[in-house]
Design a protein that fits this description.
Blueprint: H1 5-14, E1 28-32, E2 40-45, H2 56-63, E3 67-70, H3 79-85, H4 101-114, H5 127-132, H6 136-139, H7 146-156, E4 161-163, H8 167-176, H9 179-191, H10 195-209, H11 213-222, H12 232-253, E5 256-261, H13 271-277, E6 281-284
Parallel strand pairs: 2-5, 3-4, 3-5
Antiparallel strand pairs: 1-2, 1-6
Helix pairs in contact: 4-9
Length: 286
C-alpha cells in the first residue's frame, strides 16, 4: 500500500483538466523573457503510462537546466508519512455514511475482486484514493511514470528535486471536495466494472501521445460522468494560480525544468496562459 500511494495521488490530480485558449500540440514549452537570463522549461506529464521513455528534446531541456521541480518534492523522505496521514476521511466518516446499504454491497464485491482488499479495511479512506487504487487496472501493463524517469535523470546529473506544493497542500484538495461526490465516481466505476473508465483513459492516452493538450481539455470539460468536473477550481485552477509565483522564483534563481500533469497546461487558468499573463514568453519546443 505505502509504495503505490505517491503515484496514485498524482494520477488522481492529473486526470482532470479544463478547456481554454487554443494551444499548439506540444508537451514541452520554453519559458523566457520578463528578465530571465536563461530559459526554463515546462513539461506536461501523464502520471501513469505503459512507456515513459523521455524524448530527445526533453533530455536536451533537462541538460540545459540545473534544477528539477515537480508537483511534489518526491525526494522528500517525509512525503510518504504525509500521504498516509491524509488518506483518511475527517470527522469519523466512513464509506457506509456515503452510500446506501445496497450500494455498499456492490462496492464490497467490486473492491475485493479488483483491489484484493476487503472494503471494511478501506472504509475510512477518502473515496478518491480507493478509486486511484483501481487505476493500474486501466492500463493492462506494468505502470511506468514520467516523474520517475525525470528524477532518474536529475539524480544522474546530481541535481536537486523540489516541489511546487507540499504534500499537506495537495492532500487538502481531497477534503475540500465533498466525500459524497467522490463516492459517486467510485460507485459508477463499480457498477460498470471499469468499462467507462477504461475507454476514457484509452482516449486520454491517445490524446497525450499526440501531445494534444487542447484535446485533453475538451475531453474532460465535456465529461459529465465525472463528478469532479464541477470541482475543477479545487482540482486545477486554484493550484495553478498558486504555482505561478513559485515558478517565477525558481526560474529567476536558476534555469529550471518543471514537470507537472499535462492537465495543468491548457485553459484560461492553465499554467501556460497564467505565465503569459505574468509577462513571460511561452513557446512550444519543436
Amino acid at each position: 500500500m505505502k509504495k503505490i500511494i505517491p503515484s496514485l495521488l498524482l494520477s488522481i490530480l492529473g486526470l482532470f483538466t479544463v478547456q481554454g485558449q487554443e494551444l499548439k500540440n506540444s508537451l514541452l514549452w520554453e519559458i523566457s523573457g520578463n528578465g530571465l537570463t536563461q530559459s526554463s522549461y515546462l513539461y506536461g506529464t501523464i502520471h501513469m503510462t505503459c512507456d515513459a521513455t523521455l524524448s530527445e528534446k526533453v533530455k536536451q531541456a533537462l541538460d540545459d537546466t540545473t534544477l528539477l521541480v515537480l508537483e511534489l518534492d518526491m525526494d522528500d523522505p517525509s512525503m510518504q508519512m504525509g500521504m498516509m496521514k491524509g488518506l483518511y476521511m475527517k470527522d469519523g466518516k466512513t464509506i457506509n455514511d456515503l452510500v446506501s446499504e445496497e450500494d455498499y454491497k456492490i462496492l464490497e464485491k467490486f473492491t475485493l475482486e479488483n483491489i484484493g482488499m476487503p472494503l471494511k479495511m478501506m472504509k475510512t479512506f477518502k473515496p478518491f484514493f480507493i478509486t486511484a487504487m483501481l487505476y493500474p487496472k486501466l492500463l493492462g501493463c506494468p505502470v511506468q511514470s514520467y516523474e520517475a524517469e525525470l528524477m532518474k535523470v536529475a539524480h544522474e546529473q546530481e541535481e536537486e528535486v523540489l516541489g511546487l506544493e507540499t504534500i499537506e497542500e495537495q492532500m487538502s484538495v481531497f477534503d475540500d471536495i465533498p466525500y459524497e461526490d467522490q463516492a459517486i465516481d467510485l460507485l459508477r466505476s463499480a457498477k460498470d466494472s471499469l468499462e467507462y473508465d477504461k475507454a476514457t483513459f484509452e482516449k486520454m492516452l491517445t490524446l497525450y501521445e499526440n501531445q494534444d493538450i487542447e484535446g485533453m481539455g475538451k475531453m474532460m470539460e465535456e465529461d459529465k460522468n465525472l463528478s469532479t468536473t464541477k470541482h475543477k477550481d479545487k482540482m486545477l485552477d486554484n493550484r495553478n494560480i498558486n504555482w505561478i509565483s513559485k515558478i517565477e522564483a525558481f526560474s529567476k534563481s536558476q534555469p529550471t525544468f518543471f514537470g507537472v500533469g499535462a492537465g495543468h497546461l491548457s485553459g484560461e487558468n492553465g499554467v501556460i496562459n497564467l505565465l503569459r499573463k505574468a509577462g513571460y514568453s511561452i513557446k512550444p519546443v519543436k
